[in-house]
Design a protein that fits this description.
This protein is of the alpha+beta class. The protein has 10 helices and 17 strands. The protein binds iron/sulfur cluster (3 copies) and FE2/S2 (inorganic) cluster.
Length: 378
């Protein structure tokens, strides 16, 4: 173990821990913008500077490894002045649109401007990168809100492995770009949206979220993504019962803060008008059972050959009791007539482990067949 003091508090920590990590683990908050616990150290924003006994200058705590006997000071007038100056410089080229900004309430720049009581810049104001990119259907990139923290670049490289974006240009020209500033869809971007997740400002915003409500008006619902067997935890942000956007949360046990493109953007089926909300029975079977007066003839060609077939042409909605009774009757008739191996079960990755366990048990013991398979992923 390594022993040091932070703001006079004796702290023991594992070798290799940074001063920022040790401070946060001991409820000592240090302002930070470019740091993200799941990403490598950047050291770019300098907001996390601290004084180290024996060092001549303040040092970023996010890149400083704890050493035995270190004495750290995280708060004093000089550090506060430096941090205020950093935020002052950020907002000298950042529109203070917080009154209408979708990120208001969760934006880190807004949080620190508030905490340091900065209402306007003391420098000359100039938007250095008035670039607005809406070249894809998933999210917009509004560079005037970008503070060049580099979190998006690091997540794309270190977590996603897509390496779609990087810093381009120098000085005031510097901005986050794809190679040759091509549209995102022509880059290696896989549209996972993890860059949106880690962006501390409104520089990256899901299209579905724009203008749909203030952060504090949105309800939150945590659930498990149903797309594949990984079972990532998702948090939906909802307005009036409708999903506005999806994100992950740091406490998600499987996926941490990250999601793939299906989990993050593929949720519009939830309220799609075509979504089936009750069991459907083929119309000719329903006619035979006296459940409908309109018969229907099974077409000779495959239903897959029909473009966008309408389910209500060939099926009618029925209640669950009728559906389950009918399925049980048909299954037992088939087992009696053709034997248990005439039946096959295909389980779904959208079900829970427990549901799939019961499903295989039902097939093995109830029906008496090992004809079972599982769609491991979509
Ligand atoms: S990104 Fe943050 S600081 Fe900028 S306008 Fe939006 S809420 Fe305000
Ligand atoms: S959406 Fe994913 S792949 Fe595309 S730039 Fe963002 S992090 Fe990289
Ligand atoms: S787009 Fe967001 S995450 Fe990327 S550098 Fe700009 S502010 Fe940081
Ligand atoms: S958080 Fe440490 S330099 Fe940005």
């Amino acid at each position: 173990m390594v022993e040091l003091t932070i703001d006079g508090k004796k702290i023991q920590t594992n070798p290799g821990t940074t001063v920022l990590e040790a401070a946060l683990a001991n409820n000592i908050d240090i302002p930070r913008l470019c740091h993200h616990p799941e990403l490598s150290v950047s050291g770019g924003c300098r907001l996390c500077i601290v004084n180290v006994d024996g060092y001549s200058n303040p040092t970023p705590s996010c890149g400083l490894t704890c050493q035995d006997g270190m004495a750290i000071e995280t708060q004093n007038e000089e550090l506060l002045k430096s941090r205020r100056e950093i935020i002052d410089l950020f907002i000298s080229e950042h529109p203070l649109d917080c009154v209408t900004c979708d990120k208001s309430g969760t934006c880190l720049l807004q949080k620190y401007a508030y905490e340091f009581d900065i209402t306007k810049t003391s420098h000359e104001f100039e938007i250095s990168k008035p670039i607005y990119q809406d070249d894809n259907p998933f999210f917009i990139r509004d560079h005037q809100y970008c503070i060049l923290c580099g979190r998006c670049v690091r997540v794309c490289d270190e977590v996603v492995g897509a390496k779609a974006i990087d810093f381009a240009g120098r000085g005031f020209e510097c901005h986050i770009a794809t190679p040759f500033d091509d549209p995102l869809k022509d880059s290696t971007c896989v549209f996972c949206g993890n860059c949106i997740q880690v962006c501390p400002t409104a520089a990256l915003t899901p299209v579905s979220r724009m203008g749909k409500g203030r952060e504090w008006e949105l309800d939150r619902l945590k659930t498990i993504c149903g797309y594949c067997g990984v079972g990532c935890q998702i948090e939906y942000a909802l307005k009036d019962g409708k999903i506005i956007y999806a994100q992950s949360t740091p406490d998600a046990p499987v996926n941490g803060e990250f999601l793939c493109t299906k989990g993050r953007f593929g949720w519009d089926f939830a309220t799609a008008p075509e979504r089936l909300t009750s069991p459907m029975l083929r119309r000719d079977v329903a006619y035979e059972l006296g459940l409908t007066s309109e018969n229907w003839e099974l077409p000779q060609k495959s239903p897959l050959a029909v473009r966008k077939p309408k389910v209500e042409d060939s099926h009618i909605p029925i209640d669950w009791d009728t559906a389950l009774d009918l399925a049980a009757r048909k299954l037992s008739e088939n087992v009696k007539e053709y034997g248990p191996d005439s039946i096959m079960g295909l389980a779904s990755a959208r079900c829970t482990n427990e549901e799939n366990y019961i499903f295989q048990k039902f097939f093995r013991l109830g029906i008496g067949t090992n004809n079972l398979d599982h769609c491991a992923r979509l």
